[in-house]
C-alpha cells in the first residue's frame, strides 16, 4: 500500500495546484492522501474533488507552524473539518503574522543588497496570503543569487543570515486544540528536523502528548532508516501512533513523493490503521 499523510500544493509552498498534486499521487499509486498546506486550508476543496474523481481516499489536512521554547516546530492536523471556525480564525492569525514576517525578511534582504524581494516572492506564491521562505528561495534562484533552494536557505534564510527574522508562531497547546476542536488528529511532524538534544525532544513529546497529540511522523524524507527506527520506538514509549508522509513540495526540489510505502519500523502502530482510514 502507498499512503501520504503530508504534502503541499500551491495553497502554500508547493508548486503543483491541488488537482495536479492529486493526479500525480494517483499516478504514483497512492491509496490514501492528505493535503497538509502550511497554515492554510484553501487547497482542500479542489484536492478533495480531484481525489474523489481519481478514486484516492482523501483526508483534509493542515501543517500548523508552532513556536515551542523559542524554536519553530510543525504540527500536522489530519481529518479536520475545513469549516471549523476556531481553526479558521487561528490560521488566519498565523497568516497575518506570516505577512508581517515577509515584510521584515524583505527588509533584511534589501539591507544585504537584494531589492524587491517581497514583490518577487509574492509572485511565486500561488496564494498571496501565504508567503513562505520557500518563495523567497525560489526567487533568489531565479535571479541567479544561488544555485538551488537549499543553498538559498543556508546563505540567506536561516538564523544568523540576512533574510532571517525571528518570529512567534502558534503555541503548541493552541495548535493541538484547534485541530482536535475541528475533529482532527494532531501529528508532530518530522521530529528529525528539529535537532533537539534527546532530553529536549523527550520534553516536547511529553508536552505534545499531554496537549492531546495523537501521533509522531516516523516516516519522512527528513529521516534515514536509523532515525525512523528511533522515532518509532519513541512513539511507542510516549503512547503516540506512527504517521508517514513525503512532505512533497515539487517534482524537482523534493526527494520523495507524493506517496511513501506504508512500512513502519517494527512495533510502531500506524495511525492510518488505528483510525480506520484504510
Ligand atoms: P516558513 O514556514 O515560511 O518558515 O518556511 C518553511 C519551509 O521552508 C519548510 O516547510 C520547507 O518547505 C522549507 N525549508 C525549510 N528549511 C529548508 C532548507 N534547509 N532547505 C530547503 N527548504 C527548506
Ligand atoms: Mn514547506
Ligand atoms: Mn514542515
Ligand atoms: Mn511540510
Show unreliable segments: none
Number of helices: 10
What portion of residues is helical? 40-55%
End-to-end gap: 9 Å
Class derived from helix and strand content = alpha/beta
Categorize the overall geometry. Answer: globular
CA gyration radius, whole angstroms: 18 Å
| Order of neighbouring strands in the sheet with most strands | 7-6-5-4-3-2-1-8
Oligomer: single chain
In this entry the ligands are:
adenosine monophosphate, manganese (II) ion
> What does the main sheet amount to?
8 strands, mixed
Number of strands: 8
Query: What is the chain-wise order of helices and strands?
Result: EHEHEEHHHHHEHEHEEH
Q: Give average pLDDT, whole number.
A: 96
> Approximately what portion of the residues adopt beta-strand conformation?
15-25%
Q: Could you explain how this protein is built, in words?
A:
- By secondary structure, the chain is α/β, with parallel strands linked by helices.
- It is built from ten helices and eight strands.
- The protein has helices spanning 18-27, 44-54, 85-111, 117-124, 133-142, 149-157, 172-181, 198-210, 225-237, 271-274; strands at residues 2-4, 32-35, 57-68, 71-78, 185-188, 215-219, 241-244, 260-261.
- It has an eight-stranded mixed β-sheet.
- α5 (133-142) packs across α6.
- The longest helix has 27 residues, at 85-111.
- The model has no long low-confidence stretch (mean pLDDT 96).
- One manganese (II) ion (MN) binds next to loops.
Amino acid at each position: 500500500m502507498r499512503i501520504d499523510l503530508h504534502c503541499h500544493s500551491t495553497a502554500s509552498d508547493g508548486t503543483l495546484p491541488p488537482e495536479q498534486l492529486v493526479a500525480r499521487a494517483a499516478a504514483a499509486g497512492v491509496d490514501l492522501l492528505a493535503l497538509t498546506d502550511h497554515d492554510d486550508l484553501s487547497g482542500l476543496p479542489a484536492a478533495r474533488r480531484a481525489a474523489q474523481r481519481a478514486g484516492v481516499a482523501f483526508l483534509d489536512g493542515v501543517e500548523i507552524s508552532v513556536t515551542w521554547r523559542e524554536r519553530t516546530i510543525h504540527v500536522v492536523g489530519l481529518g479536520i473539518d475545513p469549516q471549523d471556525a476556531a481553526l479558521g480564525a487561528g490560521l488566519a492569525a498565523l497568516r497575518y503574522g506570516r505577512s508581517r514576517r515577509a515584510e521584515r525578511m524583505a527588509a533584511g534582504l534589501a539591507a544585504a543588497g537584494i531589492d524587491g524581494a517581497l514583490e518577487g516572492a509574492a509572485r511565486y506564491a500561488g496564494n498571496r496570503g501565504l508567503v513562505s521562505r520557500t518563495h523567497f528561495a525560489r526567487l533568489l534562484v531565479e535571479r541567479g543569487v544561488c544555485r538551488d533552494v537549499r543553498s538559498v536557505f543556508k546563505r540567506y534564510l536561516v538564523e544568523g543570515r540576512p533574510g532571517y527574522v525571528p518570529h512567534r508562531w502558534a503555541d503548541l497547546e493552541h495548535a493541538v486544540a484547534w485541530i482536535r476542536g475541528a475533529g482532527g488528529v494532531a501529528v508532530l511532524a518530522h521530529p528529525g528536523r528539529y535537532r533537539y538534544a534527546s532530553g529536549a525532544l523527550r520534553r516536547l513529546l511529553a508536552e505534545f502528548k499531554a496537549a492531546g497529540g495523537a501521533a509522531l511522523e516516523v516516516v519522512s524524507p527528513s529521516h534515514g532508516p536509523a532515525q525512523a527506527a528511533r522515532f518509532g520506538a519513541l512513539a511507542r514509549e510516549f503512547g503516540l501512533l506512527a504517521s508517514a508522509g513525503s512532505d512533497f513540495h515539487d517534482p524537482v526540489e523534493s526527494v520523495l513523493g507524493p506517496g511513501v510505502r506504508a512500512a513502519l519500523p517494527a512495533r510502531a502502530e500506524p495511525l492510518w490503521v488505528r483510525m480506520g482510514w484504510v
